[in-house]
Design goal:
The structure is a single chain. Helix content is 57%, strand content 3%. The chain has 361 residues and is mainly alpha-helical. A three-stranded antiparallel sheet has the order 1-2-3. Helix 7 packs across helix 8 and helix 10 crosses helix 16. The radius of gyration is 21 Å and the shape is globular. It starts with 15 loop residues before the first strand and ends in a 19-residue tail after the last helix. Bound molecules: acetyl coenzyme *A (ACO).
Length: 361
């Protein structure tokens, strides 16, 4: 039996390929580096959905359709945001997405892809007792997400968030995508599959790591303290957040793609100090991990530079996982459609190792 299903191929997909030894991620035929270079989230979502809906709009029509979907989501959830904001943001997001109608059609798909980009800023603002800002369907998805947050949405920031959402849009059969496919395989609907994806993304071993990366950086404080701090964390039996991966035995290619985005944004905003500090911490962490875990190749994963990027865009660490969901949701929806189009009910077996009834008694 494969512990944690490691090495088990549980689906065939046309959506993305994760090469763990080569350190390569291909999404619908494109290297992740190309996706990070200005393709745009709407175009990435269009690529992922291509072939799964007959009337899928293309190009600018998809930008317009997603803008309309943001308005639709806003109108459906606005009055429930204040209540959901009492929860941690990822739970608030899950609660509000669960209120959206279920279905398997294109409108449902676009509404779901729009939802985290609308709901996340509203939850962040509600936590600060600020009213939600309605979407502007005339601008791009990423720019609108920043605008709804009430943070500067200049072109540099919007294109950094746009790149991020595309980079994390899909990644093989990770835990949340698998959860979404299992639920989709029962024909429960795209909203149910997305709620399953959100639930799986919440934990620190999957999408919940970037918030703790900021806690780690803040706890370390200055580069000269990095090694001692990291050693002490490992001595306490903790894991270093933003490092290690089930599939990659080398550096996660998304880490470098996002590091370039962070570096560009830092140069344009004139503040490269935080990045330089993070690079020193990263180098110290890799050295400590090599020394402490010589038999397990552990390298930087997507979450390390995600944390820096989302921090510099003004998202609070508590909401980082929701921003990850705003990118990954296109992958969940596409996988859910692929599963219902070509897959059977996912129903593996377990081996019973408990006691049997005593038939003689
Ligand atoms: N820090 C310290 N040790 C680690 C780390 C880490 N980040 N990651 C793995 N290890 C060690 C484990 O302690 C274990 O050591 P042992 O054999 O001496 O007990 C060994 O490496 C193997 O660990 P597993 O848990 O079997 O590896 P798995 O493939 O299940 O873990 C995971 C992958 C969950 C991502 C892990 O590396 C981890 O916990 N990383 C930190 C959290 C993180 O960054 N998560 C985000 C991942 S990216 C994403 O999901 C979007």
């Amino acid at each position: 039996m494969a512990d944690g299903l490691e090495g088990v191929v549980a689906a065939e997909t046309v959506l993305s390929h994760v090469d763990g030894l080569g350190g390569r991620l291909v999404i619908r035929g494109l290297d992740v580096g190309e996706i990070a270079c200005g393709l745009g989230y709407e175009a990435v979502a269009g690529l992922l959905l291509d072939g799964f809906f007959d009337a899928l709009p293309r190009g600018h029509a998809l930008v317009t359709a997603l803008g309309a979907a943001r308005i639709d989501v806003f109108e459906r959830v606005e009055r429930h945001v204040a209540d959901a904001a009492a929860l941690p943001p990822i739970e608030g997001l899950r609660t509000l997405v669960a209120r959206l109608p279920d279905g398997d059609d294109l409108d449902t798909a676009l509404r779901l892809i729009a939802a985290p980009a609308v709901i996340t800023p509203a939850l962040v603002r509600a936590a600060d007792r600020e009213a939600p800002i309605a979407p502007d369907p005339a601008i791009g998805h990423a720019a609108d997400m920043l605008r709804m947050l009430g943070r500067p949405a200049d072109a540099a920031r919007a294109s950094a968030l746009d790149a991020y959402l595309g980079v994390v849009s899909d990644h093989g059969l990770n835990a949340s995508t698998f959860a979404a496919r299992v639920v989709a395989s029962t024909r429960a609907g795209l909203t149910s599959a997305t709620v399953a994806g959100l639930s799986a993304l919440k934990g620190p071993l999957h999408g919940g790591a970037p918030g703790p990366v900021i806690e780690m950086l803040d706890g370390i404080g200055s580069p000269d303290r990095a090694e001692a701090w990291l050693e002490a964390a490992l001595d306490r039996g903790e894991r270093l957040m933003g490092f290690g991966h089930r599939i990659y035995r080398v550096r996660d290619p998304r880490a470098d793609a996002l590091k370039r985005v962070v570096a560009r944004l830092a140069r344009e905003s004139g503040g490269t100090g935080r990045l330089a500090f993070a690079e020193r911490v990263e180098a110290a962490a890799l050295a400590v991990l090599r020394r402490r875990k010589p038999d397990r190749p552990l390298d930087t994963n997507v979450e390390f530079y995600t944390a820096l990027l989302l921090e510099s865009l003004g998202f609070p660490p508590a909401a980082f996982t929701c921003v990850f969901a705003a990118g990954r949701v296109a992958g969940w929806v596409a996988h859910a459609r692929e599963q219902t189009a070509s897959g059977r009910l996912i129903r593996p077996q377990s081996r019973y190792v408990g006691p049997m009834p005593d038939l003689a008694a």
